[in-house]
Design goal:
85 residues, Znf_C2H2_sf, Matrin-type domain-containing protein, Matrin/U1-like-C_Znf_C2H2, 29% helix, 2 helices, elongated
Length: 85
């Protein structure tokens, strides 16, 4: 059996899978540049909002939810306007 190889997902570079080899690769200038390039490309597509801004999640079509997760009908929790006294 040969030694296992590790392929870096950022660099597409294969090398022997050992602690020393990984540590050397992860500390390398080319690897760090590739990681930065990848995260910059991800950030470019992201929408940034001001800190603390809340954006609602998109609504999910309820027919696709299982019955136990479907919301109650709008009239389920109506408050009775009966006066007590």
């Amino acid at each position: 059996m040969g030694k296992e190889t590790y392929v870096c997902p950022y660099c597409d570079k294969a090398f022997t899978d050992s602690h020393e080899a990984r540590k050397k690769h992860l500390a390398g200038r080319a690897h760090k540049a590739n990681v930065k390039r990848w995260y910059d490309s991800v950030d470019a597509g992201a929408v940034r909002t001001k800190g603390g801004a809340w954006t609602p999640a998109p609504a999910v079509a309820t027919p696709t939810l299982p019955p136990s997760l479907q919301p109650a009908p709008p009239t389920a929790f109506l408050i009775s306007l009966a006066e007590w006294g």
